[in-house]
Design a protein that fits this description.
The protein has 148 residues and is mainly alpha-helical. It is built from 5 helices and no strands. The radius of gyration is 25 Å and the shape is extended.
Length: 148
């Protein structure tokens, strides 16, 4: 290592800023590129907008971080694997350690813990229906809309 510690920290900070900038640039380009197949040549941004238009805007209040830590592996006893076990799954030669029953009950446990975070009754969502009762009316609207 050469140079002063201050000089090295500036260089590291500069690299971190460059990497962050590259990641944001990649994310913006990725979210704007068309996806073939299931994406029907729409970009992720297009699919998100169409989903919001079709289903409405979802206000995500999120799952409390403690619940995520408790049920998704950042809390509890550490798991130890034998040298041949990767922890990436449980092939037939690996013992799941009795976790099968726990996984079946997991949705109910999460729901019970998460109930305290809901302060309202479910809202009735009206059935989606097109306001246009004919294709002619829709086409007229669409033509006018594209001219705006």
């Amino acid at each position: 290592m050469w140079g002063s510690l201050t000089h090295n920290s500036r260089i590291e900070r500069s690299w971190v800023e460059e990497i962050e900038s590259d990641c944001h640039s990649f994310q913006a380009k990725w979210n704007a590129h068309p996806i073939s197949g299931e994406g029907h040549d729409q970009s992720p941004n297009d699919m998100r907008l169409m989903g919001q238009l079709e289903h409405g805007l979802y206000a995500d209040e999120g799952i409390h971080p403690d619940i995520i830590r408790q049920y998704y592996g950042t809390a509890g006893k550490p798991m130890h694997h034998a040298p041949h076990q990767t922890g990436a799954g449980h092939p037939s030669d690996e013992d799941p350690g009795g976790k099968t029953e726990d996984l079946q009950e997991l949705p109910q446990l999460i729901a019970a813990d998460h109930d305290a975070h809901f302060h309202h009754k479910p809202v009735h969502v009206p059935k989606h229906a097109s306001p246009f009762n004919s294709a002619t009316l829709y086409n007229t609207f669409h033509q006018a809309f594209t001219q705006v």
